[in-house]
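Sanity check

After download, print the first record. It should look like this:
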Amino acid sequence: MRVRLRRSSVRGLSALALGMVLTGCATMPDSGAPGPDSGSQETTNQANNRLVVVAVPPQAGEAPAELLVSFLDDLVSDEPDYSTAKEYLADPGAWDPSARVTVLDEIRQSRTSGSLASGKITYTVSGTVDAMLDADQDYVQGSNTEVHEQFSFVRNAKGNWQITGLPPGLIIRSGDFQRLYESANLYFPANGSHNSNGVPPLVADPIWMRSRIDPLEDAARALVSGFPAQLGSVVTSAFPAGVSVGSVLPNSDGTAKVVLNSSDRTLLDDQNACTEMAAQMYATLSSVPVQQGEQSSQQVSSVALYQGSDVTQKCWVGGNSPYAPAQGPASTAYFVDTSGHLKSLNVVTEHVASVPGVLEPASAAGISAFAVAPGNGGQVAVIPHDGQDLYVGTLAGSASSQHSALHGKALSSPSWDGTGTLWVVDSDPTAPSQVMALTADGTHRVPVTVEGLPPGGSVEGLRVSQDGARIALIIGEGNQSTVAVGWVERSGPAASPTLTVIGLRYIALSKLTSVQAVSWADDDSVIVLGQSTTSAKALSTWEMDGSSVLIPAPAAPQATSGMTSVSALEADPDPVKEPLIGDSYDDPTDSGKVYVWGTGTNPTWKKLQVQGQTTGSGGPMPSYPG
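Expected structure tokens:
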């Protein structure tokens, strides 16, 4: 069973530490007997530390400036439909609160035009944009630009002021966003990819939602409404158009009963189609952090689908579904030994074994980069120290079974995805593309187009996800480098596809200025080895939508002083079976060691007694398949 806690615990602590002052909103505990000062605006429930914010309606005779403050405060209440906030509007139907969410560092208001005497007045609300959510609930990184939104007021026939013009959506402060919103993943089948069970792996698309209202139903509704248009060539969906969610009811056993509505009465009659829908729904709902919501006592462990008023269960999916996000093998990693050859490492037992295959030509002086394919095929890609050839073979193969699949002048960073496609960087400026891919049969070399690179920018390294739908790139520009994450668009025949990286998003542009290594950490985040202008080299975790700039992801373990590489198994972390691994090649006092992040209440880096190369290479480069 996949249980995604994500950043709830971190955010819950942040919310308590905010010491929030909610002007204009009444707050009260959501359960338990009222305390002696239950009429106060800052009353908390000591049993569960959950603060309920009650919206306050407009008061007769209030001036526009006061009404504007109260209206904005009502936007951070626990009211599902903003019905009280709409009482401030002359025409409630003209405002769509779901259009977007604008997150500001602070909210300032000033009078722009008009006067109280004239019966018309306009105020401007301004602040620096820290982030936005679009209509699809996708996170958009802040532009750090100042925005100025106008609110117009007119006195009605009763002599009371009402808002007659306002921007679409919500305007809230960063602190309120951290308190009220939570991320979850929508899961869609990858287009053109299959896992070991012969079905498309599920790909995570992060969204943000109000965690304190009904996050399970919110996520279910977002899932059936489909994926963003820009992902139309990357993912598919088992849910046809016209399907809606009637209800989501979690049972005490962890099963979520999901009722779907559709004009097609046979929607769920096909068991294969029903199972695919249930698998998407299960992966999505099990990623929803419900600690802050009404269902805080129960994490979803399975999903049962029903249609309309039919009381008969149509299908059921739990954690053992073949439709699941791509997963790697549990404990086997690989590294380069002192003689420049590949060895396997069981990171749990620390057992080291020689790889029987001959993995580079006899004339080559060892390995400068390698990648082992996920799955059971045993394929391996090796780049010798001269960086001019990419050799492909098998872990058990002989020299005769190995072949040069690609020739270049500066090859590096090979990475396999679950489709069998092999990706590599060619830093030669005369190469047809900085990113190249080899098809699963090894017969086609595909130049990869990377959309959105800055002028003069170059790809210096990469790591592709196992589902083959996402890719993390190290982008160099001048003497600096950072990390961007993009989607992989596949078109044309499978034997000779066209590959394009689209939707490139810089996830740590203002935080990291030098990046040495990157690895996928789970379905929607990467771990990065890098540094900024003001800090030493360190590990950090970043969400693929860039939201960790505003809400920090869980802290990564501290890097060893000489670390040059890092690798995480792309799965929900299991600190026993799937620990983080790295090396210490750049540490002159402890060079060439393999490190494993330990377990327990106070984990630390554990040095394994495994010697890596000490001269002329990039170190032992311990890595999981991928």
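If your output differs, re-run the checksum step. Summary of this record's structure: Residues 516 and 567 are 12 Å apart (CA to CA).
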